[in-house]
Every structure is written in structure tokens, then in C-alpha cells.
């Protein structure tokens, strides 16, 4: 994991990552160690410019931590953990810290315990390094995408009149795990009818009725890497408006996909998609970004298809392309795929059917 | 939510809580707002000593945020969010921050944007306030416990020869949601055989075989509040050693439960449990604490049944009591219940059978 250092202009003597308790776990801990399971609350990783790694973990997770080449140090009591890496810090002057992934309280403890050290923010280097996926990362993401695809293809079999949204969420979660996901990548969205117009709604006690739009947005987490896919369905026959919404979003997504390729400014993808929707009958109803970087985190940071993003797309980036239109009180449609950026375009990582399926 | 202020010796003019992106969400945001759904990435809550509340949220979550009495401010772009509460901070000198729940990077941005303010750590006040549950919190936890109980009672029906651990985890997750959980409280532990000896192992591709111990540790998350229950089962008939392990742990748990009541030092519960196990054939094999505070977080902070904890148990605290013994390479047993501390003892919140069930 030397490559993180290559993104730094000021080179620290080492990088120190430290997890607090759930949920304050820095996923870069898994990035630098390659560990693909375990919780590692209270654990610390020391990463050196030559690729060397020290891990300080609770003895409760010592077995799991052995699946790395790191030098392993274990503690019985959390309070003693910082003392365990005092020797490694002795000769270091500058220590890189992921300011975005450490709780302020823990940072203050490090400052107090090592007052003579200079702590510098290396969060940007992690974001940049993680934006470009290596072969192992890509293999995990592809598997996560394949699992999500398989579950998405089963949605029509899972739905019936009067089904609750939360029941569909339970079925999706079950199938994700049965197909090999370690867990769902995030809270499953399985919304019906007017709820499909709320992009951040997950699921509740609403029943499925004829004429409802059904929006399913979920992903698989496989060995810590995530997928993220969305499809919209119609229970029964679509109205003219529903069909128009679907056609508009599908066309917008195709425009996004055609625009994306290495060398393009990320914002241009969002602008191309927005421009198309703004000229449609659904102008003003596309209220979020066109997509985001995907990996160890579902929102993997850095690159995003927004109006402000000034990053240039590069080969081996993985992003979602997910335009949507939302009519409050009526319903919404979003279509989302995960793609790998290539020199000449994109490779689809998710491939579930994009027909406007009647269920 | 005035009660947080009552735990502070130095009174700030207001308390500011700020969420980053998943997973860096401060669950105190939900504590002070009472919101029981939504993600609220990038949101800020300002809490005043008179109980008043300002919420600054993305317009994508404005609908969800309306389920409070707070003054609502919405932003389109995250970069503008800190500007939105500049007026509220104008007359404030001292601002309380949860140092344990804010990423260092975000704290630095606040420092930069409001250089004349004094930021003080109020994390202890939240921990203390949250340790004592009010009626609404308790109702949510009781519901979460009831859901977990119902699923635990079904484990014997779900198991069969050659079942994979991950299949059982999928079944448990499904049933939790079908019974009304918003999601599982944490990664489900469904371990077989020798894996039951690893307290932090979750589930994998191991199949169930006759003679295996089966350990199930899971919880329901209901309106953001969690339960946490563990039972051990035997597939077939127990060996003498397995039966002895089970009997020892069950007796140890009963000792813990009999010791716990308001007014007792929390460490005394752990010591009573440890003492019993240390005198058993399983001396040295109880390698974690006897339990933890439970609520919005599964490990709710503050009070815990450890050797070091110096806190006095109080009425309306909710804790787990979960001794275990672990024989590496052979297997382990843990029995865990959630209890409410009362003046004269405890009230069981989880009630699933504690017979050593053959499945």
C-alpha cells in the first residue's frame, strides 16, 4: 500500500490510522491492511513509506488480524493501546493522519500523548489513491455487482398486491446474503407509490397497490467492497406520465454513460445528463448528483458526477451513473448502474435488465 | 433535550452536533432531535439550554426532518451549510461539541470558520445523559428486544445438517425485518463448531455438523434503538464438556443478574461473574467484559461491566449481561440478555428460552 504515499507532496515518516468504536471506523484501515473481515474497534495501523505495516489490535481480533503480513501487536486493555506503538513513533518527526476518518477526541489524545510530533492531514492522498481501483478491489466490486444483479432480476417474483415495503426489503436483504453478500451495502430502499419521489426514503409500512411505481435501490457488500444498483418497476400498467418519466430517465442515463470516459471532466457527465432532463417535461425534478465513486465506502469520496466536481475521469475508476426524476406526492424513477471507466468509454459492472418491467 | 445541559459543569451557550458522511454520523443527532429515521449526512443540530433546537439539513431530507419541533433550515449544497447557522452563533461565546462524535477534519473547519468561539467538549454529558433511558427510549428498546426474542425462539426450526453459517445469518436478518426491525442492530453472529470460540467472528462458509455448538448473537434496530441477545444451541447431543460449559456460563449469568441493581458499582457485577468462572474448570477462558450499556448505539458508552468501570448503577439504565467461555479450536458458549436496572434488581427485557436447546 505504498501508493498512498505517492499522492503526498509532503512525505510523513509514517501514516497512523486509528479506529474508535462503531460507527467511527476508518475504512482506510481495511484499505491498507487488505483485511476483508473483522470489526477492529480501537485498532491502529502504522503504514511506512516502504510498504511496511504495524497493526495494534485487541487480542479478541488477533486471529482475524493474522491474515496480513503486518507486524502484529495485541492489547488486552484499550487504554494501553497507544503505548504499544510508542517505539515505532520514536524516530518519526512527521506523522500522517486521516483527518476525515479520526474522531476529534482521539486526535486530541494522540496530540497529548505525542506532543513533539507534527501531525499532518493525509486524507486527500487516501481519496485519490482509492479512486483508482486495483485488480483485487475490482474483483471484489464485480462480485458485489453480480450479487446485486441477481437479486434485482428476482424483484418481479417477490412482489404481489398488498405487500409491505418492509417485507420487500427483508426479501432483498435475505437474497443478497443467500447469494454471497456479507451484508447489504446500505439500508435497502424498497419504496412504493408516492414514496418513490423521496430519494432518501428507505422502506416503511406502505402496501403495494396496482398502478404504483416501485423503486429498489440496494447493493451487496462483499469482502468490504460495495455495489449500488437502482431499478424502477411498475405494478400493473404504467400511466402515460409514468412511462414518460421512465423513458426520460433511461435516456438521460444513456447520455451519461455515453459521455463518461477517461480524460473527461467529471462535471461534464452531470451537465450532459442535467441538460437533457432540463429540456424534458421533468425540468427541475432531477434534484441530486448523477453519481458517485464506489468502493470500500458506498460514497467513496473524491470524484463525483456533480456540477462542481473538477476532477478528470481516469481509467480504473468505479462510479455510479444514476439520474432520476421525482414528482412530490406522485412518484419518482431512478436508474442506476455501476461502471468502470475505460479509455474509450465505460464497462458496465451491473447488468440487470433496464426494461420498464411490469410486476 | 434540556437534560444534556444538566450534566455539564461549564455551561456552553449552545451545543453544536455535526454529521459527516456515513459512517461518521453522530447518533446524538437522533438523540436530541428524536428523529427515528433518515440518514442526515452533512446535517447540523444546534441545541439551546432552554431546549430549543435548530436543524440544518440537506433539502433531500427536509421532509423527514419535519417530524420534529425544530426550526428547520435547508441547504442545496453542503458547502453552504455552515454559513446557514452563522446568525445563531453570533451571540454565542462558548459552543459545546461532542469531541467523540465529530471527525477531526470537520472540527478544524468549524475552528477556521468561527475562530473567535470557544469550543468545549461535551461528550461526557451525552454519555451520562444517554445512560439513563426515558420512557420513549425504553419503549423502543423493549420493542427491539421483543423482536429479537421472537427470532431467537425460531432458531431450532431454521437449522439442519449441512446448513451454512451465512445461510442462518440470512434467515435471521430476514426474520428480524419481517418482525418489524428497521434493520439488524449489527452484523449477525451465527457461528458453528470451533468458530463459536471466536467472540468477534460473524459468519462464513462453514457447514453445520452433528455435535456442533451453535452460537447466535444478534439484535433488532427499531426506530434507531437496539437490542442485543445471545443464545447457544447444540446440534445433536452435548458432550460432557459442552454441557459443563453451558452450565457454567448460565450459572455465571445468573450470578451477574443477581448482583446487578441500582446503587452497586458496575465493576462488582463483572467481578462476581469472573470470580465464579475463575473457580470453574474454565478458568482463564472468560476473555471479555460482562456487558455494556445499550441504546442508540449497541455499545452505548459510559457504563460497562468491566473490571475498571467505577460507575454506580442507576435506575433506568439498560445493559447487557453476557458472560461466555471460549476454548480455542473447540468451541464457546455465551448467554446474553438485556436488562433494565431497577432499585431492587433488574427487569429482563429479553426473555428467550435459556434451556440448552438441542436443535
Keywords for this entry:
19 strands, Creatine Amidinohydrolase, Chain A, domain 1, 2 domains, alpha+beta, three-stranded antiparallel β-sheet, homodimer, six-stranded mixed β-sheet
- Derived from helix and strand composition plus strand pairing, the structural class of chain A reads alpha+beta
Compute the number of strand runs of chain A: 19
CATH classification class of the largest domain in chain A: Alpha Beta
Largest sheet report of chain A? 6 strands, mixed
The amount of beta strand of chain A, in percent, is 15-25%
What's the alpha carbon Rg of chain A, rounded to whole Å?
Answer: 22 Å
Shape of chain A: elongated
Which CATH architecture of the largest domain in chain A is right? Alpha-Beta Complex
Query: What quaternary form is this?
Result: homodimer
Order of helices and strands of chain A: EHEEHEHHEHEHHHHEEEEEEHHEEEEEEE
The greatest inter-chain interface is formed by: A-B, 56 and 56 residues
What's the structural domain tally of chain A?
Answer: 2
Continuous helix count of chain A:
11
Say which CATH homologous superfamily of the largest domain in chain A is assigned: Creatinase/methionine aminopeptidase superfamily
Termini Cα gap of chain A: 47 Å
Summed over residues and divided by their number, the pLDDT of chain A gives a mean of 95
| CATH overall fold name of the largest domain in chain A | Creatine Amidinohydrolase
Strand order of the largest sheet of chain A: 4-3-2-1-5-6
Q: Which regions of chain A are unreliable across 5 or more consecutive residues at pLDDT < 50? A: none
Helix percentage range of chain A: 25-40%
Amino acid at each position: 500500500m505504498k501508493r498512498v504515499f505517492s499522492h503526498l507532496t509532503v512525505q510523513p515518516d509514517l501514516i497512523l490510522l486509528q479506529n474508535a468504536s462503531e460507527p467511527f471506523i476508518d475504512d482506510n484501515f481495511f484499505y491498507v491492511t487488505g483485511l476483508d473481515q473483522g470489526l477492529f474497534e480501537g485498532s491502529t495501523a502504522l503504514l511506512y513509506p516502504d510498504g511496511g505495516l504495524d497493526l495494534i489490535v485487541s487480542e479478541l481480533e488477533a486471529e482475524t488480524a493474522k491474515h496480513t503480513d503486518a507486524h502484529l501487536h495485541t492489547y488486552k486493555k484499550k487504554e494501553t493501546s497507544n503505548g504499544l506503538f510508542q517505539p515505532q513513533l520514536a524516530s518519526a518527526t512527521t506523522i500522517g493522519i486521516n483527518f476525515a476518518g479520526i474522531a476529534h477526541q482521539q486526535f486530541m489524545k494522540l496530540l497529548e500523548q505525542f506532543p513533539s510530533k507534527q501531525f499532518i492531514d493525509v486524507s486527500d492522498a487516501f481519496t485519490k489513491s482509492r479512486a483508482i481501483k486495483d485488480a483485487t478491489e475490482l474483483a471484489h466490486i464485480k462480485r458485489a455487482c453480480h450479487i446485486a444483479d441477481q437479486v434485482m432480476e428476482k424483484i418481479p417474483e417477490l412482489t404481489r398486491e398488498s405487500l409491505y415495503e418492509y417485507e420487500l426489503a427483508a426479501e432483498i436483504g435475505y437474497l443478497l446474503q443467500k447469494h454471497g453478500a456479507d451484508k447489504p451495502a446500505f439500508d435497502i430502499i424498497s419504496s412504493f407509490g408516492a414514496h418513490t419521489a423521496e430519494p432518501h426514503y428507505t422502506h416503511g409500512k406502505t402496501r403495494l397497490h396496482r398502478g404504483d411505481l416501485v423503486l429498489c435501490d440496494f447493493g451487496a457488500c462483499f469482502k468490504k467492497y460495495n455495489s449500488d444498483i437502482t431499478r424502477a418497476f411498475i405494478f400493473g400498467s404504467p400511466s402515460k406520465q409514468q412511462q414518460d418519466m421512465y423513458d426520460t430517465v433511461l435516456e438521460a442515463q444513456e447520455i451519461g454513460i455515453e459521455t463518461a470516459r477517461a480524460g473527461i471532466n467529471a462535471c461534464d457527465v452531470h451537465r450532459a445528463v442535467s441538460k437533457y432532463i432540463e429540456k424534458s417535461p421533468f425540468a427541475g425534478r432531477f434534484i441530486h448528483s448523477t453519481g458517485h465513486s464506489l468502493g470500500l465506502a458506498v460514497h467513496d469520496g473524491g470524484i463525483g458526477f456533480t456540477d462542481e466536481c473538477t476532477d478528470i475521469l481516469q481509467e480504473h475508476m468505479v462510479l455510479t451513473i444514476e439520474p432520476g426524476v421525482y414528482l412530490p406526492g406522485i412518484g419518482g424513477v431512478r436508474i442506476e448502474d455501476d461502471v468502470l471507466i475505460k479509455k474509450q468509454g465505460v464497462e458496465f459492472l451491473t447488468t440487470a435488465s433496464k426494461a420498464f418491467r411490469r410486476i
